[in-house]
From TrEMBL:
Pfam families: DDE_Tnp_1_6, DUF772. Residues 324-442 form the Transposase DDE domain. InterPro entries: IS1182_transpos, Tnp_DDE_dom, Transposase_InsH_N. This is IS1182 family transposase. It comes from Cohnella zeiphila.
């Protein structure tokens, strides 16, 4: 016979919320192995000690925020509704079955007012990394870095065109010193100092989210994006650094400064790094050599003029500081320009009757010119690292470390799109997403090992 279950649901029962949450639930593991007590000390300067109404417990507030990022709940209103009906969420926050859930506006107000222009989200991320280090889950010896695009909350058709200053290179002083030293060693006069001219370029600026950048990359979608520059540690794939820039900032620009931050903040003794081809620039190769770090960077394919010799077909003689062409003629040193490139040129008298002339140059004066950066030796060392056995093994780890980290963030934590607008808000999203990814790894690993 048919029976209705509704009458049974109207009965009163004495239950404990502790018994309703499974023993192997992820939130139980996170509560057991992650220490959240540091949050009180971090936010204490942001609260008034002797005035105002009693505030919502900061630990509960941040646990609510972390729940939203952990389970990919994009809306704070939806987060409030989910906590009301989910027993595991209530248990994690320390709420009983009948306790009132803090209003969603509490999260919004604190994020927009109390936590605005503070480092609280960076501090929380750093603290979780330090806890991972204390559990010996971070080695700090081998780091892998890459970036991924994050679609801005902006229409790509709504923009204005503006003239903006180009990014200032933080290595210019060091490069200028290297150029002057190289010219002096070759007996060239010092370059005349020139007035600093601020280079400008025209860019598209979104009218909806001006902090985002218009990204145009081969094989990537076109529009307004942010870039999440992320670093993971090879040992357990824990995320050790997160940095957000507009989508039109090159990957290589913030790399060395973020690498130094990790070494200083966490005391890492970095021995090797693996990077994508977007980081293959001479300043980065020189920076890695100066820091005595074994760098493995993917090869970047260049497309030289069809029908002409490739540059690698010319042999560089370091002792005599000349290039030797395939016809065994020398290209001698001429000068070093402001950008750090040495110029080597052939003798037109030899080239004009050379049978390989048409494969060498198409210049009217029959002169072949090659350039070589003053830091080119550092770049060649990185190329040799990539071709070594250890380099090949290290680079193969990218797909199962940094690529997987990005995939998990986008598939499981709603990291494909920006929840909010503005660089600081997107940075909060990136930091909190990385924090919950680290928390999950710590909890699951320690849960399996005990």
């Amino acid at each position: 016979m048919l029976r209705s279950n509704r009458d049974k649901q109207q009965q009163y029962e004495f239950v404990s919320i502790e018994d309703l949450v499974p023993k192997d639930h992820l939130l139980r593991l996170m509560d057991r192995y992650i220490d959240f007590s540091f949050i009180d000390e971090k936010v204490k300067p942001l609260y008034c000690e002797d005035n105002g109404r009693p505030a919502v417990d900061p630990v509960m507030l941040f646990k609510m925020i972390l729940l939203g990022y952990c389970y990919g709940i994009r809306s704070e209103r939806q987060l409030e509704r989910e906590i009301q009906t989910n027993v595991a969420y209530r248990w994690f926050l320390g709420l009983g079955l009948t306790d009132r859930v803090p209003d969603h506006s509490t999260i919004s107000w604190n994020r927009r007012k109390r936590f605005k222009d503070t480092t609280i989200f960076q501090d929380i991320f750093d603290e979780i990394v330090l806890q991972a280090i204390s559990h010996r889950m971070v080695g700090g010896r081998v780091l892998i870095t890459d970036s991924t695009h994050l679609k801005a909350n902006a229409n790509k058709h709504k923009y204005t065109k503006e003239q903006v200053q180009q990014n200032t290179k933080d290595y210019l002083d060091e490069l200028n010193a290297a150029v002057e030293a190289d010219r002096s060693a070759e007996g060239k006069k010092p370059l005349k100092p020139r007035e600093e001219v601020t280079e400008e370029k025209e860019v598209k600026v979104s009218t909806t989210d001006p902090d985002s950048g218009y990204m145009i990359r081969e094989g990537k979608p076109e529009g307004f994006f942010y870039l999440d520059h992320r670093t993971v540690d090879l040992k357990y794939n824990l995320i050790t650094d997160v940095h957000v820039t507009p989508g039109n900032v090159h990957d290589s620009v913030p790399y060395l400064s973020r690498l130094d931050r990790q070494r200083e903040r966490f005391g890492f003794n970095v021995e090797a790094v693996a990077l994508d081809s977007g980081y293959l620039s001479t300043p980065i190769c020189k920076g890695l050599e100066d820091r005595k770090i074994f760098g493995v960077i993917a090869h970047r394919r260049f497309h030289p003029t069809q029908g002409l010799f490739h540059k690698w077909e010319f042999t560089y003689d370091k002792e005599r500081n000349v290039y030797v062409c395939p016809a065994e003629h020398e290209l001698t040193y001429r000068t070093t320009d402001r950008h750090g490139y040495r110029h080597y040129a052939s003798d037109p008298k030899h080239c004009v009757n050379c049978p390989m002339l048409l494969k060498c140059t198409r210049s009217r004066n029959h002169r072949k010119v090659l350039t070589r950066h003053v830091w080119e030796d550092s770049k060649e060392k990185v190329r040799l690292n990539r071709l070594s056995k250890a380099g090949k093994q290290l680079y193969r780890k990218r797909k199962e470390t940094i690529e997987r980290s990005f995939a998990d963030a986008k598939e499981l934590h709603g990291f494909r799109y920006c929840r909010l607008r503005g660089l600081q808000n997107v940075k909060e999203q990136a930091l909190m997403t990385a924090t919950v990814q680290n928390m999950k790894k710590i909890a699951l690993h320690l849960g399996r090992s005990q």
